Amino acid sequence: MFLTEEYKTRRKKLKELMGSGVLLFLGNGECGINFKHNTYPYRQDSTFIYFFGLQLAGLNAIIDLDNDTEIIFGDNLSIDDVVFTGPIRSLEEQANEVGVSSVSPSKMLEEYLSAANDKGQQIHFLPPYRPEHILKLSELLNLPSDEVSKNVSAEFIKAVVKLRSIKSDAEIEEIEKAVHTTAEMHYKAMEMAEAGLTEADLFGAVQNIAMANGNNTSFPSIITINGQILHNHYRGNLLKEGDMVLCDCGAENFSGYAGDMTRTFPVNKTFSAKQKEIYDIVYKSYKTAAEMLRPKQLFRDVHLAACKEIVVGLTELGLMKGDPDKAVEAGAHTMFFQCGLGHMMGLDVHDMENLGEQYVGYTDELKQSKEFGFKSLRMGRALEEGMVLTVEPGIYFIPELMELRKSENKFMDFVNYERLEEYKNFGGIRIEDDFLITNDGSRILGPKLPTTSEEIEEFRNSKKRL
Amino acid sequence: MFLTEEYKTRRKKLKELMGSGVLLFLGNGECGINFKHNTYPYRQDSTFIYFFGLQLAGLNAIIDLDNDTEIIFGDNLSIDDVVFTGPIRSLEEQANEVGVSSVSPSKMLEEYLSAANDKGQQIHFLPPYRPEHILKLSELLNLPSDEVSKNVSAEFIKAVVKLRSIKSDAEIEEIEKAVHTTAEMHYKAMEMAEAGLTEADLFGAVQNIAMANGNNTSFPSIITINGQILHNHYRGNLLKEGDMVLCDCGAENFSGYAGDMTRTFPVNKTFSAKQKEIYDIVYKSYKTAAEMLRPKQLFRDVHLAACKEIVVGLTELGLMKGDPDKAVEAGAHTMFFQCGLGHMMGLDVHDMENLGEQYVGYTDELKQSKEFGFKSLRMGRALEEGMVLTVEPGIYFIPELMELRKSENKFMDFVNYERLEEYKNFGGIRIEDDFLITNDGSRILGPKLPTTSEEIEEFRNSKKRL
To answer: Chain B contact for A35, CB < 8 A?
Structure first.
């Protein structure tokens, strides 16, 4: 929780950007796992956290610009609740801490919106990403459920993106805390990994650190010997000599901010020569990208530069061929690097993804591409001071994709399919860190983890931190 | 996953119980945390697991009794998915493993149901417990969302409850695995607890064991020095000398079955005299209840016997007074024991709670009470061989409840409010184990954990397992 002034400032800026109408903020409810009262760990909506701070289930809020009113809608607990939850401070008291003086029972929200509608006020709301939002909006606004998404407010989205994209000092401090815990998670995985353990052993240990030091992980940890599977959540494999472990995980601290880092390391103390060759290409791509980060730099171009490094490296190895620039232009790098170079990070690990990638990572002039490989580039637009984002190049040998592209005769001028056969069971490598854009460049967030292949091997041998 | 025959038998029995109509089984989808693609750990619907085994998001199924047809509705993955998820066996192959030969694309389900409806077939479905179910049912059955819940099939509920209440040998084996992992979680908490650690440290370690050895915890772990708060999920407190830790947690294994146990132990090596007195009353209540478990025994009466032990013990201590039977009749025990003695356990930690407690724990003749204390008794009906359930008495000193009842002049003949003042900061104690009803009594599931106050102290001193 930040100081009251921080929330007031955020809402003030939002009001200046929006001008008129009623802004509707849906807080998240509890979500039942296998029955209603067995709930997943509670997570408030990030935009609600950003403007109203309160991480309680069942709240909604409005800012009525035409009447200069801010109201949090929610209900206080009964004695029956208190038996199960313990004493909880009144909603009025909590609202006061985020600078909102008006609190109203939940059931009044529908009435408020209906009256606003009758008065011809425009009601702005953000895109629903949980079924509960669709149901709630359908009920509150008297819309058929399949009409809800069509009525989201682009103006509201743009204003929220504008504000949340640039992190305040207080936010950067919170993100850095989350990144610190994230680094601890990585150190743990790199310390304990050895042949005979399972992926799940590492997964549990990493989860432990996130939950003992914060709210949760910021996304389901990917800890796998099959790094070529980008979002691999299976964790039943045994670690074997010669395998590499790809560990992509992050902590979410109590204030809701995320960290997100990836390291790939050998189960042995050292990489094999073949692994090290590929690792060093990924590292070069990472380094090239990191060094380009600065205000006004188009992130799309950072992505392309990172892709080119991968192509250059793989060409030197004989896995690719031809002119690297043309290969990237043709999209041949997507044989090995199928996703985007990075994404903004903040209250969401993919910050504001629910508001729409086009709005968050692109502009009216710069549209997100729908092509394979490019469509997962979540960020293309020019960087600005105060942005926080990840850089995460990788090389992934996906047998299914290799076979498919070969059968399509695709990228024949750029890919050496014959040579590629030797890499069918190689796996995948990713390196990922979190960066803050500063006034003249960037700063890596959190402590420096072992990153080069030499540093990784040194740590796997000595267990001594940098 | 069980043998194909097990699933076929379950469906065969269900068909025999139901007779006619179309049975609709909604599988669970993914659930976005803070944006659509950042999902909570996936959990399939338990009834879907029970009859169809497959733990994949986005499936639905029907059993058409009138046409003797079983169909799983779902979609195979595209290459875009495979990049992120890795190769996945075809749905046809997986369906075949649970004895279902017919698979159809998701989009055909609506058509199927609409045709069935046109032919006058009754469509049976179970109560929705996630907003996604309401939306899906509303769309599939062309019902307004607020009409969905009114149309659930009591006949279908009763048939499912009848089958799922009695566990097969294969199920008991799975439950016992989950209880074993649960015992490991408890040993870990009891081994590591010491002054200076936080509740979160224990929480993380316990979570680690569940996630390294199975699917997840079977519910959010309650690990607290404020045991009087029944579902306490705050974990920021420091453990201090003199505190007790209440640890209520359970593992869910990969097949979806739950364990659920509670122990309460001192942060010191031994309980204080005052703590031990209360602990021993809870243990006596636990033991009395456990010994009563056998087929045909009304669980409501086991609950009442457990309540009476608590009243007798507290009367001896001078915290209660008067005739214990009359005290229980008046509900005076709910000052200290506000919830039910136990619940069935299986694929859900509160097994089948989403189907309605009245259907699961009661009968047409025996109705669930709505009174404070009784309304959380999830199980009242006669026990049967093959049932699995928890026994979990406790004594909780809830300051807010004590003040409220005193101000209402309630239970004046049974509660010594003056004496009670000394226990305002005592906290709470619970003991919980999982039992299988056998043909002539019961069997405790999993390994025996330290349970009596002496065993707990012995373990806290020696760390030696029983």
So the answer is: yes
CATH code of A239's domain: 3.90.230.10
Query: Which residues between 181 and 220 in chain B have a beta carbon less than 8 angstroms from any beta carbon of chain A?
Result: 198, 200-201, 203-205, 207-213, 219-220
Pick the last residue of a domain from A115, A137, A165.
A165
Tally the domains of chain A: 2
Per residue in A21-71, pLDDT tens? Answer: 999 999 999 999 999 999 999 999 999 999 999 999 999 999 999 999 999
Chain A residues in contact with B347 by the CB 8 A cut-off are 34
Mean per-residue pLDDT, A118-124: 97
Instruction: Give pLDDT, residue A370.
Output: 83
Using the 3D structure, point to which of B119, B145, B165 is the last residue of a domain: B165
Same domain (yes/no): A155, A206: no
The ipTM, to two decimals, is 0.95
Considering the domain architecture, whether residues A160 and A176 belong to the same structural domain is answered as no
Query: Residue B445's domain spans which residues?
Result: 169-462
Closest C-alpha to A63, from A1, A107, A125, A117: A125
Of B34, B220, B338, the CB nearest to A43: B34
B262-287 tens-digit pLDDT = 999 999 999 999 999 999 999 999 99
Contact A348 B226 (CB under 8 A): no
**Partner residue facing A211 (CB), from B132, B203, B213:** B203
Task: Express the helix, strand and coil content of chain A in percent, nearest 5 each.
Answer: 40, 15, 40
Residue A422 DSSP class: G
Euclidean distance between the first and final Cα of chain A, in Å?
32
Query: Confidence class of residue B135 from pLDDT cuts 50, 70 and 90?
Result: very high
* E strand residue ranges, A31-117: 32-35, 38-39, 60-64, 69-73, 102-104
Nearest CA in chain A to B346: A34
From B41, B145, B400, residue closest to A220, measured CB to CB: B41
